[in-house]
């Protein structure tokens, strides 16, 4: 049984802050600074170049990948870490398209995070083979999986609304229609149980700085189904994905299995922070996280709807159809969020009018949910959001 | 005048070590651990998601890029930091090819670092337009720049021998033949003066973990000549290169200038270490670094040739034709290097028989050069390299 009192003690959260934005950037694990400091001073500082072997830097993308694999229902040896989610989506999509050369449609939905769509556009232009990105509404995805679809590329949890796709059902539907799947797990990994192997997903990618708490700009990960791992095209064929990087061959030969999806030199310092973050996950039962997450989200919805009827729910009401976040609409959403943040309740805003609140049971409990709603009520009661400076649009929200 | 006694005090080098491998991984700057710790504890820990604005994380790829620009002869606003060198080479090459659609040859040389060649192979396969990678010997490059060449892609300094290409002359020759240029500055940035703007280079990329001392796996940088910056194709078109990332548009619109070459979320923790490393470069005169580097390399060559005639010079003898490293050949090169490392003289080995020694005046002086040669003499005299365990090949050298 996961004891969330214990996981909670493993994070450093500032006093007076209720942090409901772990869906954007997870908080600092208590052990991260020491772990990173050790990598700098003892590994880099003392071992210098020898750290690539003696400190295990060279194999870390795979060993850290195995730790993430456990959290997303993937077998050991099927996940590697590195680069950014955008890059990993590009590789996954390129590899998936190469398996389906006779078809030209990449099907996605309007709930996908924009960078996935942008990377697909870039890949389509680079391929120059007349591929087409077809973007439909989330509820229209299933019906749009026709026999022209090469690849179904979706983010499992919608970043704005938290709406959860049925990965197993859509993957089965795609396969039945002769398409492959690429799943973006940005808002899934660490948020809810994912069953990559069981669902039959072909490729997946995710980031580690949201629910996994790896730190700002922490490296991404990529999953390749074992049945594809030795034949998938890396597209971004860098030396770390070569069969023998230190043979310094003139020609590329793809490495074994998922190793081929490695590209350049591993981000050692960032990986140290991620290791500290993954330590918190040791022994955590994802089913228990899911139960607690749904309970927190349900409580938040119940309280907001009872106490703040000005807000309109923008997330699925059924916890089974939702990730680990709840979104509400308010016409002055941006300013309301600024007022909340100033009062220590940190969520975020997505245009045009969405207030997003993420609930991570590892460090958030029912007391924080109640306190956050009370502050929200105060902000609305006093029109505390009606200060001019709350209405200036910041560059980043 | 650059005072190398002062720069030297800004690194932490282990006692008893003479570090001649800064051409592979620079040493730990003394201020890095504190700087990274501050980013973790004060920025990530306290500011949480707000750090993207309040701590400047979002604009760091550009601001750090400007600091590197000064060191490679590039104007402010022409360099951004992120990803790995492999990824940045891919973007540069894709953009260069798109400017020259009628031609199919990518010309490179056997002194290029393999990952550049591998990324080119991957791009060629993805483009599927019949491009061809032509790899000639370094001395044959100039003569091979024919009117079929779309892009000349070279690493300025050969990673094995230190041989230095004439960037200005080869760029002029390429332009005269109607080709564009992509320069890899992995062994140039921080090693010698580079004049990207003056040489007319079209694109360049480099890494920051060698002579710039940014740490293991530190992010790379890319340069786009100002005349191309608003029309270059990003290829890896991620959200951070979008004109308005936080508008969350469904379609990609390339950002202003070099910003379009950004891809995913910036690696904030790694950038903190790199910032500390770049602080050491403040006020350093690259011409003074070059003079000191040539003097150190010349001294090393003179002493080794006088005292260790078993070794054969594998680098250009003329300092003006060499980067900041010296390579020697020995039939038992691998084992000799293991014996040296065990005695505190850290260089590295490249197959089949090359011993590499890098000389970074920021933290290495003539005393270390003399001491290193004395240890080399001891190793050779006593056949100290003749231990069986020195002859096992490590995974990484």
TrEMBL record, chains A, B:
Necessary cofactors: pyridoxal 5'-phosphate
EC number: 3.7.1.3
One Gene Ontology molecular-function label: kynureninase activity
Superkingdom of origin organism: Bacteria
Subunit record text: Homodimer.
Family per similarity comment: Belongs to the kynureninase family.
Designated name of the protein: Kynureninase
Species the sequence originates in: Azospirillum picis
Lineage, broadest ranks: Bacteria, Pseudomonadati, Pseudomonadota, Alphaproteobacteria, Rhodospirillales
């Amino acid at each position: 049984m996961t004891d969330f009192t214990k996981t909670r003690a493993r994070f450093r959260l500032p006093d007076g802050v209720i942090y409901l934005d772990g869906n954007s950037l997870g908080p600092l694990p208590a052990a991260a600074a020491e772990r990173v400091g050790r990598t700098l001073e003892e590994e880099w500082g003392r071992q210098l170049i020898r750290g690539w072997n003696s400190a295990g830097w060279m194999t870390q993308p795979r060993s850290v990948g195995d730790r993430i694999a456990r959290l997303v229902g993937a077998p050991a040896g099927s996940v590697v870490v590195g680069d950014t989610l955008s890059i990993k989506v590009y590789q996954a999509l390129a590899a998936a398209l190469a398996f389906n050369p006779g078809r030209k449609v990449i099907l996605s939905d309007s709930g996908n995070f924009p960078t996935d769509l942008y990377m697909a556009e870039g890949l389509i232009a680079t391929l120059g083979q007349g591929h087409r990105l077809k973007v439909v509404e989330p509820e229209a995805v299933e019906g749009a999986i026709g026999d022209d679809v090469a690849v179904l590329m979706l983010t499992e949890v919608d970043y704005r609304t938290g709406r959860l796709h049925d990965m197993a059902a859509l993957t089965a539907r795609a396969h039945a229609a002769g398409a492959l799947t690429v799943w973006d797990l940005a808002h899934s990994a660490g948020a809810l149980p994912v069953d990559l192997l069981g669902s039959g997903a072909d490729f997946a990618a995710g980031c580690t700085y949201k629910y996994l708490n790896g730190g700002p700009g922490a490296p991404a990960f990529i999953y390749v189904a074992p049945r594809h791992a030795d034949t998938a095209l890396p597209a971004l064929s860098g030396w770390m994905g070569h069969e023998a990087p230190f043979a310094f061959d003139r020609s590329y030969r793809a490495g074994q299995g998922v190793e081929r999806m490695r590209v350049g030199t591993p981000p050692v310092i960032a990986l140290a922070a991620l290791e500290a973050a993954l330590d918190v996950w040791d022994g955590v039962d994802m089913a228990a996280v899911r139960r607690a997450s749904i309970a927190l989200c349900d409580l938040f919805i119940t309280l907001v709807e009872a106490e703040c009827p000005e807000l309109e729910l923008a997330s699925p009401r059924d916890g089974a159809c939702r990730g680990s976040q709840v979104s509400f609409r308010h016409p002055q959403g941006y300013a309301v969020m600024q007022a909340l943040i100033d009062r220590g309740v940190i969520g975020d805003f997505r245009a045009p009018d969405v207030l997003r609140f993420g609930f991570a049971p590892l460090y958030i409990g029912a007391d924080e949910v109640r306190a956050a709603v009370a502050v929200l009520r105060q902000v609305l009661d006093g029109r505390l959001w009606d200060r001019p400076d709350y209405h200036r649009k910041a560059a980043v929200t």
